Amino acid sequence: MGKVKVRLRPIVSRINLPTALKTAILPGDSMEALFIATQVGEIYYIRDGSLRTFLDIRPRIIKLGASGGGYDERGLLGIAFHPEFYYNGLFYLHYSVSGTQGPGALPESISPNPCDPKTLNLKWINRRTQYDHIDTIEEWILSTNGQPQKRRTLLNLRRPFSNHNGVNSLNFSPETGKLILTTGDGGSGYDPFNLSQNDMEIAGKIIEIDVVKHTFIQNPPAVTRFHELPVPIQETLTVIAKGVRNIPGISFQRYSNQYIKYVGNVGQDLAESIFSFTQNKPIPVPLLVQAFLMKSEVEQKGFINFGWRGWEGIFPTPIIRDCSENPTLDEKSMAFYDEAVKVSVRRLHPVTSYFHKDQRPDKFGGTALTGVQAYMGNRIPALSGSVVFTDLARKEESDAPARGVLAYTRIRTDCKLNDFSVIEADYVFGTESAYYVSLGTNLNQSTLYLGVYGSMKVTDFNQGSIFEIIP
Length: 471
What we know:
By secondary structure, this protein is mainly beta. The protein is built from 4 helices and 31 strands. The strands form 7 sheets. Strands 25-26-27-28-1-31-30-29 form an 8-stranded mixed sheet, with no helix packed on it. Strands 10, 11, 12, 14, 18 and 19 form a 6-stranded mixed sheet that branches. The longest helix has 9 residues, at 285-293.
């Protein structure tokens, strides 16, 4: 794969941090509109070159940036439009709820130490009081007067820490017609409670929600585990995958009469990874709960497991200790040997991985994966049929302003690990930082949209821009 050159065409600027970019056709319209969800709770759409407000839920969003110098991973995290949105006006939101701030699940940050078993077997106790916040997934409807209204709550999820809540976390499956929720592992670092591998934990999973089943439980309880959910809600849920650290959405690529699913898993300290799968054997939540109550195990042959926390992409999860004398000699030791062995055979292998340190001249040192999209257009022939991804910011040794990275990869016919190539973007950001925070596409995947932000602080307003990626 060779380098590809593209241009970035500005569409809109001076918006807040864009977390999700989606297109849909409004009821009664004939043209796709680009919808932009911002982390602080605004949802805009662009049609005929003009920016309009679709919905503003800022009062419903938890206060962002109150700690940590303005960096935050909560807020409005996902939006998805029902496949029949044009006819029924239904859409779905995932956000962190105002007024639900808690003290967090741990009093301080703890890193795994292979010599200290206590750090490898932590438990999340007192969950009703020791949590960071509550996320909600809601169904909304665009009423006949054009005003969006909340219709019902699908899930309320209690989260242990402020980070790893997912981003671009809601998408509809063209295969099943169900809503897909991608949840992060709950946050902190190294998944301290190993929630991602625990079948009963909602954290660290990819979940399908059958929105056709109208549960209409007025105020679902805030939960952390599947068995805590009311039975009618359990019956709407199916688990597609586990072993998730944090995912910037899921992308589908039609191939013959089936779909290839692409998922990016954000890494810890070493590697960012992109996975793909076609065939998978999801597990209904009632089956998981039944096995839990009977203290038995569900058959998981064909079930997708990305390997976290025992594996970080293609590597057993390492602890990295800096070598101040020579950074190229940084010491790496396995964080969770027993877990890496247990998961080694069951885990799905990545399509490609890229690394936080990479000295090859045609590569880059990554920071965090922020978007993965299949591209099926022909305006950029070199990318047609490939998987495009974005990294937040290239790791630089200099003090130059931050710059995000575009890159792409393909699936090898032998299903082995493939390389990736950088996409050179012709745009002058000047002295401003340019963090690549989101990636989106239109309904037929022929156009790619890029969200860029000038700061990683949610309190730095109006520094966002949306670009179309063009030849």
